[in-house]
Amino acid sequence: MTTLTLRTKRRRSALRTLAFLSPWLIGFAVFFAYPMISTVYFSFMHYDGFKPPTWSGTKNWTYVFESYPFFWPALRNTLWLVVIMVTLRVLFGLGIGMLITKIKTGTGVFRTLFYLPYLAPPVAATMAFAFLLNPGTGPVNSILEKTGIPAPGWFNDPDWSKPALTLMFLWGVGDLMVIFMAALLDVPKEQYEAAELDGASAWQRFRFVTLPNISPIIMFAVVTGVIAAMQCYTQPLVAGKVASGVIQGAGTMFEPGYPEHSTLTLPQLVYNLGFQRFDYGSACVVALVLFALSMAFTALLMRRRGGLIQAGD
Amino acid sequence: MTQVLERPVELRSPATPAERTARRKALLEWIAVHSLGVAAALFFTLPFVFVFLTSLMSDSQALSRDLIPHTWEWANYRRVFDTPGFLTWWKNTLIYAGLGTVLTVVSSIPVAYALAKFRFRGRNLTLMLVISMMMLPPQVVVIPMYLFWAKQLDLSGTLWPMIIPLAFGDAFSIFLLRQFLMTIPNEYVDAAKVDGCGDLRTLLKIVLPMAKPGIAAVALFQFFNAWNDYFGPQIYASENPGAWTLSYGLESFKGAHHTDWNLTMAATVLVMAPVILVFFFAQKAFVEGVTLTGVKG
Amino acid sequence: MSARMPEVVRKAAFALTASTALLLSTTACTGQAASGASDDASKEQTITFWHAWSAPNEVKAVKALVAGFEKAHPNIHVNVVGNMTDDKINQALRAGGSKAPDVISSFTTNNVGKFCSSGALIDLNPFFKKSGIDPNTTFPKAMNEYTQYQLDRCAVPLLGDAYGLYYNKTAFEKAGISSPPKTWSEFEADAKKLTIPQGDTYKQLGFMPDYHGWETTTEHYMGQFSPTYFDKSGKSTVATDPAVTDALELQKKLVDDLGGFTKLEKFRSGLGDEWGPKHPFQTGQVAMQLDGEWRLGMALATKPDFEIGVAPLPVADDQADQYGKGYITGTIAGIAATSKKQNAAWEFVKYVTTDTDAVVGFSNAIHNVPSTLDALKSPKLTYDPRFKTFLDIAANPNSTTSPASVNGGVYLTTLQQLGYDYESGRLTDLSAGLKKAAAQIDTDIAQAK
Question: Could you tell me if residue B73 is inside a domain?
């Protein structure tokens, strides 16, 4: 009798759980599981969207890794963004976060001003920076030239296009600022006071009190930054299009990466292969590479103790 | 400004030499910090200022290197609104963002609730899958999804391929809501159960009213996501100008006006402005949301 | 395991079955139906027509053309969608469906190979036969050729383009140049003479040679050297064809002589746009322009304060006898295989591409080269005397185009990429670069097959 009610209870509880989870379960099946399986399937098929797909073995894989001219440049750019842009962004975000905790007058105004750029829609922000950094008519180079500093070509120069993108991402550092600000305010005051009594210098206080306390947040910022850098799509694509001047080149085929592959990223390759060259198979290969990289770093994020998943209940 | 002036006055009271050096140090630090603050504020705001100033320049001046408009051409904004399609992009963006947000919130709440408050086998697995989906760029699954929407359902050239999936829970929203619901003490839920409330009633009557800030944050994020989305419209809506959104249309606007930077910047301002306005009205919920994604771990 | 386990299993099983079912349905439906047009062209209906024109006068001309058709066929209405790039056309032809176009037109002939071989656009030969029109006697030879691929006629020429040289006669006089250059070495000398520097930029630039300068693309330069691109077996010849090397070296020399890549690119980033009134040739910022025949009408419409001269582009010094040739291409139109109104679509295509008055009217309006032999001879064809230069280039037997390839224009973009690397100085060993490009072109084509 008791076991039976227990079982009914359990079944009811399972059904209840299932009911609550059902929107996501359907979403998971239709918008994740199915397309993932399908992506793997298409990666072994030759498919151009017109004729039915035909089996092509590992041809797409060897093509992407060995012959597709954009793959390695895109990966190199991604590495650049991951190493340089993410580092700078975390340091800058931390710096701004510390600054805002130190600011005593007009804190609210400063915080809002620092945060606003993060909200600028990516296409609009990119459009704005393409204008600001335009080597011919943009205000930034006008000012630089007036002060006699050599003005770079920014989005028109392959050596400067990624720094220009980085500058734009530093501008939108608001998310990190808020996270660091919250973390810094959470550091127990007593620890600072104790350190001060021990005669610790400002740097020592930062090194031995602040850093250990906020290191999980730094880690979080780095890992999510890496994931975001790998998935960077809209900004480099739009920047390249705007800077090249062939944004809607009727008749001309715009392949992403202007100037000279320097703004190519992996997600853009999926677009280039899938929706410009219509080689769906190879596009799926790149998609799987992107998937593997994203998941590897997501796993890192989830393994972090007390990380994204809160322990127990 | 007044506050800047107040500080030194307050510091002028008589004091011992030691106190004086300490105060001088504090004053110097105050000046250093606030100068840095002003410098940073300039870095963050000047781009907006330049964009706005350029949006008011005449066509010929927009190509020159002057920074301040000679004549203030407010009519530029009129010209942007007169661009064929601009109002349609607005309408579409509002539909995508509005409808998408409502669907996301409605479908994500029960899932987040289950993940936060139910005990069941596979909960951690589910949560891990949710996070995985959250971290997944849309490009990974776009080939089969595009073929599915375009070839099976004949919905390319519409907003539906971007809106319909939101009716089945959005991973990021589920995660964010779950983080928020975790902060609501279980005692409230248990008490409601003791009073004989079913799960649905508990969720609707007890938990939801307490979760308003979390829901607001999720709604805001989703609204902005839709507003900012470029890839979705590029893949699904590009073939039908009647389905373009602001983010996608803005690029084509640049395409049609090339170096009429004044008009492009006016359009840019019009795309940015609503987001910034919404932010001012909902600042608290927003900042809370950003913090929730990381810190409450 | 415990009683809760099956739920996970069930969940997984559900996900799996759902996804396999969807997967199967996707793969089963991807085949294209064979084109057997059986729709009734005489009933009341609306067809969708996509085109790529975007300049205001061109959009207006398309409207007039369509209005003429609707007048002749009152039962067929045309929903016109403009400013559609090849990417979007390609995408829609694959997707099909209710919003997809019935009739498309594209500025590039590059995709004809892909469109024909894949069956994306239907073979129009049966329609021509049914209507009693012989394409061979209707269209000029070159245009007739670039609209088919291996005997499959999936496209029809809708006006043609020829590329020539525009020059600022007033600036020429000021610089003491009496006639347009006929060889590239004359051209180079003239371009230098016409360049007036101003600080680190230009008051007037003789010629904007950069590949990103709109029509100064690799294939347009190369057109003046008559390259072959592919050998008989379909392999790329860019590494062995001297025409390719000559064209690339010429452009590089122009870049270096006129101020260097960085300076030119900076100047370019501040120029007006190709389809707007502030085009640098029209404003006098650039004295010579490699451009298509449409520029004449556009430039005249902005009433520039100088006299515009038109000539064929120069040729290599050792090919002086071929002066007068140029790169030719054209807009093409075709009917989507996914269209359910193919007979009605054909009525439209037939009207816009073969009706002499329609072709002449459209050509007069957008100043393109007419694409039927009758239209070329039509007394109604009105043009500026200078426009004759382009008609002659189009008729010149030495004029060339870039051949159709199974993966569209990818080989041209590969070559263009090489051009970017070479003009900026990143690539110094041209012959090694060309060998790599040739191998790339071959692998890309193999991958697309």
Answer: no
Radius of gyration of chain C from Cα atoms?
A: 25
In a domain, B68, yes or no: no
In this complex, which chains have at least 3 CB pairs below 8 Å with chain B?
Answer: A, C
pLDDT of residue B291: 66
Give chain A's domains with CATH numbers.
72-234 (1.10.3720.10)
Confidence tier at A2 by pLDDT (50, 70, 90): low
* Complex confidence, ipTM: 0.90
Same structural domain, B41 and B173: no
In this structure, the answer to whether residues B144 and B185 fall within a common structural domain is yes
Does B118 lie in the same domain as B32? no
| B150 and B263 fall within a common domain | yes
Which of C194, C200, C136 has the alpha carbon at shortest distance from C169? C194
Mean pLDDT, chain A, integer: 88
Q: What is the pLDDT of residues C338-386, one digit of tens each?
A: 899 999 999 999 999 999 999 999 999 998 999 998 998 889 988 888 9
CATH number at residue B236: 1.10.3720.10
Instruction: Tell me the CATH number of domain C45-161+328-395, given options 3.90.280.10, 3.90.226.10, 3.90.1150.10, 3.40.190.10.
Output: 3.40.190.10
Name which of C4, C272, C278 is nearest B120 (Cβ-Cβ): C4
- Give the C-alpha distances (Å, rounded to integers) separating A20 from B116, B203, B266, C200: 11, 11, 46, 67
- Residue B60 inside a domain? The answer is no
The number of residues making up chain B comes to: 297
Please determine, for residue C210, whether its predicted confidence score (pLDDT) is greater than 60.
Answer: yes
- In Å, how far is A154's CA from the nearest CA of chain B? 15
Is residue B71 in a domain?
Answer: no
CA gap C449, C439 in Å, rounded: 16
Q: How far apart are CA C83 and CA A167, in angstroms?
A: 33
Average confidence (pLDDT) over C181-210: 94
Average pLDDT over residues A178-185: 91
Residue C166 Cα, gap to closest chain A Cα (Å) = 21
pTM for the model = 0.87
Structure tokens of A303?
Answer: 């393994």
Number of domains in chain B: 2
Across the interface, do A313 and B119 touch by the CB < 8 Å criterion?
yes
Query: What's the confidence (pLDDT) of residue B290?
Result: 64
- Can you say whether the dihedral through the CA atoms of C197, C201, C205, C209 is positive or negative? positive
Residue whose tokens read 């009683």: C3
Which of C20, C106, C426 is the closest to A260 by Cβ?
C426
Q: Which pLDDT belongs to residue B67?
A: 82
Chain B residues inside the 8 Å CB shell of C30: 147, 151
What's the confidence (pLDDT) of residue C36? 56
pLDDT digits (tens, 9 = 90+) for A79-113: 999 999 999 999 999 999 999 999 988 888 999 99
Domain that holds residue B119: 79-294
SS in 3 state form for B60-126? HHHCCCCCCCCCCCCHHHHHHHHCCCHHHHHHHHHHHHHHHHHHHHHHHHHHHHHHHHCCCCCHHHH
Between B146, B157, B256, which is nearest C99 by CB? B157
